[in-house]
Amino acid sequence: MTVIEVVQGDITRQDTDAIVNAANESLRGGGGVDGAIHWAAGPRLAEAGAAIAPCARGDAKATPAFDLPAPIRHVIHTVGPVWKGGDRDEPAVLASCYRRCLEVADELGARSVAFPAISTGIFGFPPDRAARIAVDTLRSTRTSVERVRLMAFDPKTRALLTATLQT
């Protein structure tokens, strides 16, 4: 059974086998968590991303972690939905992001994965709905991943994720 935990902190400094990047389709870097991961991993991450791009919304693809600190070995890139009111399959696409990341983690042999709050930044997905989708999808997806870390950038997100995990 997968243990899910909530941690506030820097996703690029986690003691996990893989981290998830909330990416754009080009996989070359951007703002928010995507920019932070690319900065920490170094320029080879953008080169590797470009080589496997594009990545469709709801899908996931992996690259090496390059200059990220051990034990992180992989970056799993996923492209979440842009919120447009919720009637354009945004919830299903977001759930697919979490499922596909676990599938890719299994293919890589990763036993621990850190996830950001996918699509809740500039993509505008309501954080409370996104948290429920993340927790429900992670709980219901069969995986060999033993530990999932839901990363919170701030205390408000940590409290929201913690409360959602407890229900």
Automatic annotation (TrEMBL):
Residues 1-167 form the Macro domain. It comes from the Bacteria. It holds the Pfam family Macro. Transmembrane segments: none annotated. Signal peptide: none annotated. Coiled coil: none annotated. PROSITE patterns: MACRO. This is O-acetyl-ADP-ribose deacetylase. Gene3D superfamilies: Leucine Aminopeptidase, subunit E, domain 1 (3.40.220.10). It comes from Streptomyces niveus.
